[in-house]
Amino acid sequence: GDVVTNPYDFTISGDTAYVVDGGGNVAYKVNLDGSGVEAIPLPKKLIDNPVFPPLPPGAEIPPGLVEVPPDGLPTTPGGLPTQALVQSVPTGGTIGPDGALYVGEYLGFPYPAGEARIFRIGEDNQPEVFLEGFSNITDLTFDEDGNLLVLQFSDVPQFAGDLTSLPGSLIQVAPDGTRTTLVAAGQGLESADGVVVGSDGEIYVTNRGVGPNRGSVVRVNVDDVGGVASVPEPSSILGLLTFSVLGGGAWLKRKSNRE
């Protein structure tokens, strides 16, 4: 069969590189000299009552696009399955304060909202669900205070709008598990695909990562009292600083972090 691979993100810790492969649904652990390659599979997720895109009359979802549980299951009146085994599609990897690898997932077709997980992978190379309840994660990173920043490419399924301008968000997860939405859907993040904390402590996001001549690097401002400033359109400088326009589309992000 076809071999599908898409090394979407990687990070380095000590003498080890970690490569997150969205096409192969694995995270690779490899020594910097190229030896000792270990593949860590990310598990599929069983979705109940998945939402599918509207189909024209008489049309059907192509065979093989949706995997159903092997023991069979009931279908809707339209013939759609009431359960689906969805591929993980890992897209972001970062080293946490504890030295473990944290991996976020996008989830495959039909791109269910609110179902994406974040895995923690320790020294035993076994992925454990660390957090869940996210949508279409494309990147994640920790700040200097141990908060986990989770970037959502879109808060809605991928088919629910124009792929180049889907409403995304940025969520902060505190060490105690408290979640704060730093940038909500509709506040300026559209099909964003990368987040990093700069040396100045500011949060930077690669925005509009699909399509040519649309991408930009933006800065998210959080006010001094712990509130959050909305991210306006790039033409404004109140909450967002546009540094450059990226040509060619940044949908396939290549990022290297040395921890």
How would you explain this protein's 3D organization?
This protein is an all-beta fold. It has a single domain, classed as YVTN repeat-like/Quinoprotein amine dehydrogenase (Methylamine Dehydrogenase, Chain H, 7 Propeller), CATH 2.130.10.10. It has strands spanning 7-13, 16-21, 26-31, 38-41, 45-48, 83-86, 90-95, 101-105, 116-121, 127-134, 137-142, 148-152, 169-173, 179-183, 194-197, 203-207, 215-220, 245-246, 256-258. The radius of gyration is 19 Å and the shape is globular. The two termini are 37 Å apart.
The number of domains: 1
The largest sheet is: 5 strands, mixed
Chain-averaged pLDDT: 85
Q: Strand arrangement, largest sheet?
A: 4-3-2-1-19
Shape: globular
- CATH-defined fold name: Methylamine Dehydrogenase, Chain H
Assign the structural class, choosing from mainly alpha, mainly beta, alpha/beta, alpha+beta, or little secondary structure: mainly beta
User: Unreliable runs, pLDDT <50, ≥5 residues?
Assistant: 224-259
Named at the architecture level, the CATH assignment is 7 Propeller
Q: In CATH's first tier, which class applies?
A: Mainly Beta
- Topology as a string of helices (H) and strands (E): EEEEEEEEEEEEEEEEEEE
Strand content: 35-45%
What is the CATH homology-level superfamily?
Answer: YVTN repeat-like/Quinoprotein amine dehydrogenase
Beta-strand segment tally: 19
N-to-C span: 37 Å
Count of separate DSSP helical elements? 0
Proportion in helices: under 10%
